[in-house]
Amino acid sequence: MRPVPMPRPPVNPVYSKGKWEHIMRNQVIRPESYPNYKKGLKPQPASAGRHTGHVNSRIVGGEIATHGQFPWQVLISMDNSYVCGGSLIASNWILTAGHCADDFRNFVVVLGAQNVNNQVEPGREIVQTTDKIVHEGYDPVEINNDISLLKLPSDIQTSQYINMVRLPSYSMASDDLVGRTVTVSGWGKPSDGASGISPDLRFVSMPVMTNQECAQTYGDVITPSKICTDTQGGRSSCNGDSGGPLVLTGSDGVMIEVGIVSFGAAAGCEQGYPAAFTRVTSFLEWIETNTGIQIDQ
Description:
By secondary structure, the protein is mostly beta strands. The protein contains 2 helices and 16 strands. The protein has helices spanning 211-218, 284-291; strands spanning 29-31, 41-43, 63-64, 73-78, 82-90, 93-96, 107-111, 125-129, 132-134, 148-151, 181-186, 202-209, 226-229, 245-249, 255-263, 275-279. Keywords: Disulfide bond, Hydrolase, Protease, Serine protease. GO terms for molecular function: serine-type endopeptidase activity.
């Protein structure tokens, strides 16, 4: 007798401004002052009685990172209304998800932060940009090619709190990473019931699962250009983590970004449904062409 497949939870809605309920509306990150965003980010008070939580993009079941543990991690505020994660891949380039840039014009990028409320945190840099490149094949319905780039207006100086993450080599494209332990980081919601994002940068490690197993939940949207992780035990990304980096430890001990937080189950982040990421090795040529970054063979 064939096993009965698990019912499929609804996939995240179309990633548009109007339907981005998974980037919690009851606590919005806004720049404190204009212009030049020099004073950092100020969390707005939670709206009484409001709670949204349709989709997942946050860190649940994880740990609080130390300051500088993930020096490539950035926080992105889009049009003063929504928040995503991202990563520094060169001195003036940020890698994030396509849905974190597609419908937006103005981006405030916070680098070198651990606690978003600590405006005097050492090593923090805040930069504004409108220069974005969204993948020309980005499809918010099928959630394909969910990748974009933000170009910073000038080079960022590296420090113990700000540094670039390594991109995969072309030779890694043949590795599906199944069974490997990967780590995702971000300021997303720490639980399904949380009223807003985490003030502290958090991280969690999970194993990579096969795309075939992941497709049992999400169906045909799971293509070879995506990576899925097993989130059993409530260890996952969640609301607010979108666009953030999924990394693994290379043979030389250096972290390599292999995924970008893309989507999860509308049922919630702690329910054990797979988390889906854009597979970075599928877009190395696109990144190299658009940034000029030389990627190892």
